[in-house]
TrEMBL record:
GO terms for molecular function: transmembrane transporter activity. It is a multi-pass membrane protein. Its main location: membrane. It is found in: Cell membrane. This is Putative membrane protein YccC. PANTHER family: MULTIDRUG RESISTANCE PROTEIN MDTO (PTHR30509:SF9), P-HYDROXYBENZOIC ACID EFFLUX PUMP SUBUNIT-RELATED (PTHR30509). The chain crosses the membrane at residues 16-37, 68-86, 92-109, 114-133, 139-164, 350-372, 378-396, 403-421, 476-499.
Length: 653
């Protein structure tokens, strides 16, 4: 359905209007209940709808649950702080420390649980700041606001859950299946190709697809414990996909030394990819590929055995995802060992964000405390709320302009409502009736992909600045309150624009994390070396995320990413050799020498690579020499990766 055509694309579609009307009705009905209960500040019941709304039912349910829990815990903590018999400034200090904790956790934890921590901090601020700065009956108002928020969460969740569709899980699993098929096709292309540049183009496309599936995994699992348990299998598919790609690259570099491909291997690998692309779900039993190419075949080269093992793991991981196989069921039969990606914890970034947020909230609240005026209370609440909101954004400098536009638009509409509509409302019926067109307009803006982000703040600002449902007031109070709200949004937007978190810097931190993982593997730190693959794979995914935010994924992303996995793989094999009791003294010294050279920085330095090459020339042990050559090949392959580190360092400095 097309409305107001703009060139060849519609501005409004049936789904945009449908979701907009659903959202408008949910917000209106929550406000209606609060008005019927004669609660002070009933507009607080209408505001949760604009934040809770998500495109799938699972996300709506999950976000509503964390909103409810965050509001309850935040309110309980806020009232508990106020009941502590200490000076108000000390109460502000305790409150600021709590904001630091919730802001840090909102960046440390994965998925919608981060929203729960954000809501906890926000609710605490709503309770604490007004009560300390302007204590005239603010406790009663705080309780009313919390009750209205609970009403809004419950009502909005029920209504939206009835109209919002479920996540298209079947098509998502189909995408995962196509990924596994494409990964095996990529493996065939790599092992038979002589062009590394051509393979790199396919690799970038697959990495972008893996990154997209990783980002949408939590969305697919939202709202269901059963689906959340399946996240480990999606992790296993992602990890196995990267492992297959890395094993393929190892074969490509090894082919430059000798031909490791057995006859007909590439042709049957291609047939396996074609079989998978035409059949979903696909089982190991559906192909005789692994019957012919056995892992224990002594005639196969180690690189081919590794590729066979990783492909088998990939297919078994997808099978486990489709059928939700537990680790204790039929795992030994398929030789399946799921790789679970360890969660990424960027503590430095999270603590820096928390420090900025806490500094803003505490300094502004303390300054306003000494004035003891209602105007100062509005300033402190406005800046405190916006600081906490910005502190939860992954890239606040990107959202700063959108938030300011949304807040300004909402306040302007609130001013229009306050002067042209509110003074003429004579009953609750007209209050509810006159609100409908504003909500429909706000709902359509919120559901439209172009205006969705600023519309969240615009709708909240409309209710908050307009005090919808409250008696009409004088012109000075209306203008001063609304202008303060815009001013607070502008101040916080400006601060976070001046203190941006750059994707390039975050990408560098992710790269350095990969480099630190390699250092720990070299040093054989048990706690890290045992999980090096899970950690490094997660770091690669984080790096791809930051590169995509920087607009570089698939374009200028560094080559050699997968070769870092091969470096780690070769290092762990060297450590495994050291643990063998039959290892001779000469080989022991040679391995120790190689590990020592690797511990020197930077690893991409040509001098270190040349030194390693000299050591390899003196190795007589055939197996050890093969591992050392794989390490050397991987270092050469990852040279662009280490060069990229230097480029980012120069750019950021």
């Amino acid at each position: 359905m097309r409305f107001i055509p703009l060139f060849s694309k519609p501005i409004f579609t049936r789904s945009i209007i449908y979701y907009g009307l659903c959202l408008a009705f949910a917000s209106w009905f929550a406000f209606f209940i609060a008005v019927m209960m004669n609660l002070p500040n009933p507009y607080w019941a209408a505001m949760p709808a604009w934040v809770i709304f998500q495109p799938t039912r699972g996300l709506v349910l999950e976000r509503a649950i964390y909103r409810f829990l965050g509001t309850f815990i935040g309110a309980a903590i806020g009232f508990a702080i106020l009941l502590i018999p200490i000076h108000p400034i000390l109460q502000l200090i305790v409150f600021t420390l709590l904001i630091g904790i919730t802001t840090t956790c909102s960046h440390i934890f994965r998925g919608t649980i981060a929203y729960g921590f954000f809501t906890t901090g926000l609710t605490t601020a709503i309770v604490i700041i007004p009560a300390i700065i302007w204590p005239n009956d603010t406790i009663h108002l705080a309780i009313s606001r919390v009750v209205c928020t609970f009403i809004g969460c419950i009502v909005v969740t029920i209504i939206l859950a009835l109209f919002i569709p479920k996540f298209p899980l079947r098509s998502f699993y189909q995408r995962i299946h196509l990924l596994t098929s494409d990964v095996i096709f990529y493996a065939n292309q790599v092992v038979t190709s002589n062009s590394k540049e051509e393979c790199q183009d396919i690799e970038q496309t697959l990495l972008a697809s893996i990154n997209d599936i990783n980002d949408n995994a939590a969305v697919a699992a939202a709202g269901s414990m059963h689906k959340n348990r399946k996240l480990r299998y999606i992790d296993a598919v992602i990890a196995a996909s990267l492992d297959v790609m890395a094993a393929s690259r190892a074969i490509l570099t090894r082919n430059e030394r000798e031909n490791v491909l057995p006859p007909e291997f590439s042709e049957e690998l291609l047939n396996l990819s074609k079989q998978m692309s035409h059949k979903h779900p696909f089982y190991l039993e559906d192909t005789d590929f692994f019957t012919k190419w056995q892992l224990n075949d002594s005639q196969l080269k180690p690189e081919i055995k590794r590729l066979l093992y990783t492909i088998e793991q990939l297919l078994a991981a997808e099978h486990a995802l489709i059928h939700n196989i537990e680790r204790t069921q039929n795992i030994n039969k398929q030789n399946y060992t799921a790789t679970l990606l360890l969660p990424h914890r960027d503590w430095r970034m999270a603590m820096n964000i928390a420090a900025i947020t806490c500094t803003i909230v505490f300094c502004v609240s303390l300054s306003c405390y000494f004035s003891h005026t209602q105007l100062a209370e509005q300033v402190a609440v406005g800046i405190g709320i916006f600081a906490i909101v910005f502190g939860s954004f992954p890239l606040p400098q990107v959202n700063a302009a959108k938030l300011f536009i949304g807040v300004s638009s909402g306040v302007i509409v609130a001013i229009v409502y306050s002067f042209l509509v509110q003074p003429y409302i004579t009953s609750e019926f007209w209050l509810l009736a006159t609100l409908i067109p504003f909500l429909i307009f706000g709902g359509i803006c919120r559901s439209h992909p172009t205006t969705a982000i600023p519309a969240i703040d615009g709708n909240v600002a409309f209710f908050f600045a307009g005090h919808i449902g409250m008696p009409a007031t004088d012109t000075f109070t209306i203008l001063s309150t609304d202008l303060i709200y815009i001013l607070c949004a502008g101040i916080i937007s400006g601060i976070f624009i001046l203190l941006p978190r750059k994707p390039d810097k975050q990408a560098l931190n992710a790269i350095l994390s990969i480099q630190r993982d390699l250092d720990r593997i070299i040093a054989a730190q048990d706690a890290v070396s045992k999980n090096w693959y899970e950690q490094s794979t997660r770091q690669l995914l984080r790096l791809m995320l930051h590169l995509s935010r920087a607009g570089k994924l698939g374009d200028n992303a560094p080559n050699g990413l997968l070769s870092t996995l091969n470096i780690g793989y070769a290092i762990t094999m060297l450590h495994a050799k050291l643990e063998r009791p039959e290892l001779d003294h000469t080989s022991y010294i040679q391995i120790k020498t190689i590990l020592y050279i690797l511990s020197l920085k930077p690893k991409g330095n040509l001098t270190i690579i040349n030194e390693l090459n000299k050591q390899i020339e003196h190795i007589e042990n055939v197996e050890l020499r093969r591992i050392a050559e794989m390490l050397m090949d991987s270092l050469n392959e990852s040279q662009p990766f280490f060069d990229y580190i230097n480029e980012l360092n120069k750019k950021i400095q």
